[in-house]
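Propose amino acids for all 303 sites.
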């Protein structure tokens, strides 16, 4: 069996289930995002059960993107999730160098199958549950040229906005940090732990504090809006992470774009970072906005 390191895992996208993607992408577009790819119609990802409707969006950061996926979903397991959870953050996707070997490695390490391994025209892939039930999608590109396009790592707008990753709310943060380290080869960049609250900043092996600042945060539910969602949905993908050169300006731009306020810019007592929370207006999905942040240990290593 191949090891996690041999499988060369790296973070790729967050998928959002939403029934009106054409309308609902506009708050993102007005908030300095761009469309990196638009896949729809009968030419892409056609299966016996239908075809895709994917809109990929990026903002200022390299590599990490969001994907808005709309019904009718292609597979029964997707339709079941839509029935149970509705609009929401559905899965995180990792790229690997060998999807078939990845399936064996994940199933041997506590993951459970959601969608069996399948060969599509442009990639091989599958979906599993992590040990707390969040979906993990794995993709291996198999076409010479097909890729979801990337932006360069260049902050967007006068506020210098970048989308850098996502945060997940865990039932047991320590167990999940250990699992993602061992099984998907993530590493801990910084750990904030105080008064029972945990906020662990991780990334993949391609992390670069300047050129590819993709972050993956595991945390407990701290705020009321996080606790009520955890009560309703259990462990889940909680927020998209954004960083800005000017948080106040990014906050004002977000409100103008149609995002809704959850917590105004304030210094987070756990992380020490200037932080704000918003929700996008259509699915009430949470956005975490912080000041520019690149973990210090990594900056020292890169210097
Ligand atoms: Fe996906």
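Proposal:
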């Amino acid at each position: 069996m191949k090891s996690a390191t041999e499988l060369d895992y790296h973070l790729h996208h967050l998928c959002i289930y939403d029934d009106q993607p054409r309308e609902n992408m506009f708050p993102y577009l007005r908030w300095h995002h761009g469309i990196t790819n638009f896949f729809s119609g009968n030419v892409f990802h056609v299966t016996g059960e239908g075809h895709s409707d994917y809109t990929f969006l990026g903002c200022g950061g390299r590599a990490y993107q969001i994907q808005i996926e709309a019904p009718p979903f292609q597979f029964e397991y997707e339709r079941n999730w839509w029935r149970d959870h509705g609009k929401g953050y559905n899965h995180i996707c990792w790229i690997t160098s060998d999807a078939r070997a990845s399936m064996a490695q994940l199933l041997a390490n506590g993951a459970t199958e959601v969608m069996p391994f399948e060969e599509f025209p442009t990639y091989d892939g599958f979906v599993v549950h992590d040990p707390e039930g969040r979906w993990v999608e794995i993709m291996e590109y198999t076409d010479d040229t097909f890729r979801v396009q990337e932006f360069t790592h260049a902050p967007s707008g006068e506020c210098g906005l970048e989308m850098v990753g996502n945060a997940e709310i865990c039932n047991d943060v320590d167990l999940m940090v250990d699992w993602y380290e061992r099984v998907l080869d993530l590493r801990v960049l910084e750990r904030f732990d105080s008064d029972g609250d945990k906020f662990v900043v991780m990334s993949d092996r391609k992390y670069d504090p300047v050129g590819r600042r993709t972050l993956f945060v595991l945390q407990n539910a701290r705020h009321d809006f996080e606790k009520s969602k955890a009560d309703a949905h259990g462990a889940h993908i909680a927020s998209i992470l954004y960083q800005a050169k000017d948080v106040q300006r990014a906050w004002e731009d977000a409100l103008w774009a149609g995002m809704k306020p959850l917590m105004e810019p304030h210094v987070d007592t756990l992380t020490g970072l200037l932080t704000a929370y918003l929700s996008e207006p259509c699915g009430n999905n949470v956005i975490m906005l912080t000041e520019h942040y690149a973990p210090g240990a990594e900056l020292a290593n890169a210097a």
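Residues 173-183 form the longest helix (11 residues). The chain has two domains: 10-141, 161-302.
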